[in-house]
């Protein structure tokens, strides 16, 4: 079960199909999110299949394609 907070995501990466991916801060699962460019997803909110909500930070870093997304969780402001 997820908690009620909307956590911020601070790292983005592209997968081999060039989809934008991030790590859910609730369940830590890597998932694809809608958007063609990184700027399209910054500031947007998404819901993971685990039921948790997250918002991509306006300052989210775009990592190199071969990078591993770090764990992502923090108390929202």
Description:
The mean pLDDT is 90. This protein has 77 residues and is mostly beta strands. The protein has a five-stranded mixed sheet. The chain has one helix and five strands, in the order βββαββ. The protein has one domain.
What is the topological layout?
Elements: E1 6-14, E2 20-23, E3 30-33, H1 38-41, E4 45-47, E5 53-62
Parallel strand pairs: 1-5
Antiparallel strand pairs: 1-2, 2-3, 4-5
Number of domains: 1
What does the main sheet amount to? 5 strands, mixed
Give the number of helices: 1
Task: Report the principal-axis shape.
Answer: globular
Mean pLDDT: 90
Bin the strand percentage: 35-45%
Low-confidence stretches at least 5 residues in length (pLDDT < 50)? Answer: none
Write a concise keyword list for the protein shown above:
77 residues; mainly beta; five-stranded mixed sheet
Structure summary:
This protein has 77 residues and is mostly beta strands. The protein has one domain.
